[in-house]
Automatic annotation (TrEMBL):
<dbReference type="InterPro" id="IPR001919">
    <property type="entry name" value="CBD2"/>
</dbReference>
<feature type="domain" description="CBM2">
    <location>
        <begin position="29"/>
        <end position="138"/>
    </location>
</feature>
<dbReference type="Pfam" id="PF00553">
    <property type="entry name" value="CBM_2"/>
</dbReference>
<feature type="compositionally biased region" description="Low complexity">
    <location>
        <begin position="150"/>
        <end position="160"/>
    </location>
</feature>
<dbReference type="InterPro" id="IPR012291">
    <property type="entry name" value="CBM2_carb-bd_dom_sf"/>
</dbReference>
<feature type="signal peptide">
    <location>
        <begin position="1"/>
        <end position="31"/>
    </location>
</feature>
<dbReference type="InterPro" id="IPR008965">
    <property type="entry name" value="CBM2/CBM3_carb-bd_dom_sf"/>
</dbReference>
<protein>
    <recommendedName>
        <fullName>CBM2 domain-containing protein</fullName>
    </recommendedName>
</protein>
<feature type="region of interest" description="Disordered">
    <location>
        <begin position="139"/>
        <end position="161"/>
    </location>
</feature>
<keyword id="KW-0732">Signal</keyword>
Amino acid sequence: MRTRQIRSLLAVTATGVLAVTAAVLAPGAHAAAAGCQVAYTISSQWQGGFGANVTVTNLGDPINGWTLRWTFGTGQAVTQAWNATVTQSGTAVTAVNVSYNAALATGAGTSFGFNGSFSGANPVPTAFTLNGVTCTGGVVPSSPGPSTSPSPSTSTGTPPAKTVRVFWLKPTDVAFDQRYPDGITAVMREAQRYYRQELGKTFTLNSTVVETVTGEHDRNWYITTNCSGSDHYWCVVGNMHQELMRRFGIANPDSRWLVVGEISAEETNQSGGGASPGWVVLSGHDADGAAGINGPMNRWYGGMVHELGHAFGLPDSTSTDGTPMSASFYDYPNTHFSQSQKNAIMSGPYGSFLS
C-alpha cells in the first residue's frame, strides 16, 4: 500500500441527503424475496426551487419493472423529471421506470432525477416503497423460515456522535462476503486496543462496527471515473468518498464522526488510499487483507493504525523512526507512538473522541 496522505477530499454541495437501507417483509409465501435501498439527495436549491437525485437499489430477487412511491410535505411539487416517469397527486409522488432501466438484478441500482418547486420548508421524504414494499432495512426470503441470509446492505441509522464510523462499500458486481465486514471489524478492534495501549485512551466504535453499503456502480466505474489522465491512484477511493458523503450526509471533515471507508475495487498497482483529518479511505487490497485473502494480517493492522494517525491529525514521519507514522508500521505491533505524537493526537481536532 502506498501510504500517501490524500491530496484533497472534495466537499459535497448537496443540501440534504436521505439514505434508507432496507429489509422488508415478503407479502406472502410465494412472493419473491424483496428488499430495497433508496438514496434521495437534494443536489441544488434556489429560491422556491430545487433539484434532486434519487438512487434505488434492488436488494431482493431480480425485478423487471419498478414503481417507487413517496410522500412530500406540503408545498413541494415535481416540475420536470428524467430517467423515470414521475407523477404527483397531492403530496403523493410516483416514479416509474423507463424502458432502459426497468430490469434490476439483485444488488443492481438505477438513478433518476427531477426538478421541483417548494414553498416554506423543503424536507427530505422519510419513507419509500418499491413495487408496494416498504424500504426499511434488509432482505426477507420468499418462504418464511427461522433465519435469513446476510443482507448485502446494513445501516444502524445515525450513530452516536464522537465515534469512529466504518463503511465497506461493495460495488454492484461484487458478491456479498461476510469475511469482509468481519475482517474489517477485527482490524478496527485491534486498532482500538493499540490506541488504548499507547495513549491510555481509545476511540469508540459503533455497535455495528462495519456498515455494509451496496454501491451505486460496478467496479470499473469506481476505477475509471473522475480520474486525472492515467493516474488512477485516487479515483477509486475518491469516488467512494464522494458517494459516502452524499448518501449519508457526511462532511469533510465531520465533527460528529471520524470516518473509515474501504471499497472492494482497485486497479492493480494503480489504486491505493490514505487519510486526512477525519477520514480514512482505502481500496481493494486493504479490504482483501482485512478479510484474510491477501498478505499477513499484521500488515493490515499496522496500516490501519498508520492511517488512523493521519485521521487524528498526525503527519508522516520524516524517517523510519520506529513509530507507526513511518514505514515502521510494517513491523506492527513492534512500533510505538512517540510522546510528541501522543500529545498531538490528544490536542488535535479529534482528541476529544478518545476516552
